[in-house]
Amino acid sequence: METMTKNNHIGRKISRIRELRGMKQETLAEELGISQQAVSNIENSEKVDDVKLEQVAKALGVTKEGIENFSEEAVFNIINNTYNNTSSDNSTIIASSLNYQPTFNTIEKVVELYERLLQAEKDKVAYLEKLIK
């Protein structure tokens, strides 16, 4: 029962996604227009109301569902499946990252990331302009 509760702890998921994004609590607090202590309180909360969760998701650049369905195990599986190969005798061999060929177009991913970052900057500018008015 405790494992189920731990897996559904929205605050921990928010904290972990924030950390994976390389974002500090202070930065998230600024994005949300709240104090760092308020972010800490959110991250310590097992449940977060939908409106606040939407705001946090937007600030983190993910969807609300992305936070709700986040699984650290899934992240580790992706990492392991990306960088490990298994030989015919089932012993694990670490694949050289130089020999790794992604199954997606890396240029498209870079462009997609750039567009998302650009949109985030446009949103910040619009928000700041709104504050000034």
Overall description:
It contains eight helices and two strands, in the order αααααααββα. By secondary structure, it is mainly alpha-helical. The protein folds into two domains: 2-101, lambda repressor-like DNA-binding domains (434 Repressor (Amino-terminal Domain)), CATH 1.10.260; 102-133. Strands 1-2 form a two-stranded antiparallel sheet. Strand 1 (84-86) and strand 2 (92-94) form a beta hairpin. Helix 3 packs across helix 4. The longest helix has 27 residues, at 106-132. The radius of gyration is 18 Å and the shape is flat. Residues 14-67 form the HTH cro/C1-type domain. One of its GO terms (molecular function) is DNA binding. This is Helix-turn-helix domain protein.
Task: Give me the CATH architecture of the largest domain, please.
Answer: Orthogonal Bundle
Largest sheet: 2 strands, antiparallel
Q: Provide the residue-averaged pLDDT.
A: 80
Count of discrete alpha- or pi-helical segments spanning 4 or more residues: 8
Helix content: 55-70%
Instruction: Report the order of strands and helices.
Output: HHHHHHHEEH
Which range does the strand content fall in? under 5%
CATH superfamily of the largest domain: lambda repressor-like DNA-binding domains
CATH overall fold name of the largest domain:
434 Repressor (Amino-terminal Domain)
Helix and strand content put the structural class at mainly alpha
Described by the principal axes of the CA atoms, the overall outline is flat
In total, the number of domains comes to: 2
The termini sit apart by: 51 Å
**Weakly predicted, low-confidence segments:** 1-6, 93-98
